[in-house]
Amino acid sequence: MTVLAHRSPASDANDAVTRDALAVLQPGFEGTTAPAWLLRQVGEGLTAVGLFGRNIASPEQLAALTAQLRTERDDVLVAIDEEGGDVTRLEVRGGSSFPGNLALGAVDDTALTREVALELGRRLAECGVNLNWAPSADVNSNPDNPVIGVRSFGADTELTARHTAAYVEGLQAAGVAACTKHFPGHGDTNVDSHHALPRIDVDLDTLQARELVPFRAAIEAGTKAVMSAHILVPALDPTRPATLSPQILTGLLRKELGYEGLIVTDGMEMNAIAGTYGIERGSVLAIAAGADAICVGGGLADEATVLRLRDALVEAVREGSLPEERLAEAAARVRALAAWTRGARPDARPEGSRASGIGLAAARRALVITGSVTPLSAPYVATLAPVANIAVGDETPWGVAGALASLLPGTEADVYPEGAPAADILAAAGNRTVVAVVRDAHRHPWMAAALDALVAARPDTVVVEMGLPRAAPRGALHIATHGASPVCGRAAAEILAGA
Fold first, then answer.
1. The one catalytic residue among 182, 186, 194, 478
2. pTM above 0.85, yes or no
3. Is 482 marked active-site?
4. Does 195 participate in catalysis according to the annotation?
5. What does the alpha-carbon distance between residue 202 and residue 188 come to, in Å, rounded to a whole number?
6. Predicted confidence band of residue 198 (pLDDT cuts 50, 70, 90)
7. Which of 81, 266, 311, 440 is catalytic?
8. Contacts of 272 (CB under 8 A, 6+ apart)
């Protein structure tokens, strides 16, 4: 099928407005090689591509994929949602080699955070990825937040700010642009914007003293991009979510905070936008409000989506609802960031094995241990598994069972979903010591009840909390890992095995 067969009358591939409309899109696609339609759109002006777990099989395959994209244009931005810790795309099938933000915040060593971000950035750069939709600068002030949690450096504003800045510096020292998110702050929500529109009802003074502080730090650290949040903040704009709000993107972020880099939207197919405005109207409103790039592709990953959004932007310019100069300004910022990534000179990699082991070293330092440590032998690991949020995904393994089995042969394990009675765990464990592994026990009453029953029946029960450690420590030994990546599991397993 020819390109002309796809094109609406409003669009012309050689038209500057059409090329600008393509330039502001950051779409996804299916598969581990670039489809013909994607290469064609890159040739016609598409300047950025977003990668997800489905696009990645190995570092070698990813490097070949990004090289394939750059045969069409050598300055294409290749973006990824690689936070490390619980949210990983680079290691989606095995889990991240790095702890996430909460673990780094628990250690509170900004030099370590910078080093972790630098090494993560180097791995991305080696695969040809040059824009990372990270870090999360959200202050996790609401412990019931269903989508941020361990993705935040913590609930302390100043701690979050200094680690956000360190992460930005480390990532960009590797030649990978940081995209600090989710502006103006997603930490004080109890709704996941993948499903609905969250609302933050705090006054301006609270926003200035809490939510905005880490973003100011990121801007001072030189973050190349900022991602908007699909959240309603009535103190700033009573009617439109941040992604679509001129008051928030242009008034607050640009004018008040003095930010001059790229503004990227969160995924436009998330229900907070798609279910209220629709992705076409939402994309036009976002660019008009001051956004420079439209992220789409987590769920909608085909050429039809790209063409729908391209044509919606072109039509908005032609009918006068989107100023042509605003679209041109947005496209220029995208191209400027692409130019920066071409000229960035990564820091030299240190000699020795320090870089390769930095993730596990950080995870070990993040452990908080309550109770007495008695090395186990062949325990029974019961993982109480909540439903994963969309940002984390359910395809990435987590827990301590695998790491513990490698250290203690004969270890047995199983996974228990909501509703599984503690009696089933006790029966399966027999005489073995129970190691109960949980994630955000404070947010899941069924999980807390199971732990109480296990500890009551077996006081020697060990509890490993791999989420936000808000619940009171239970068991003879309680280990808070501050994250669920494999290195966090390995660090906890070492303690349990006396390794």
1. 194
2. yes
3. no
4. no
5. 9
6. confident
7. 266
8. 193, 194, 195, 196, 197, 198, 230, 231, 241
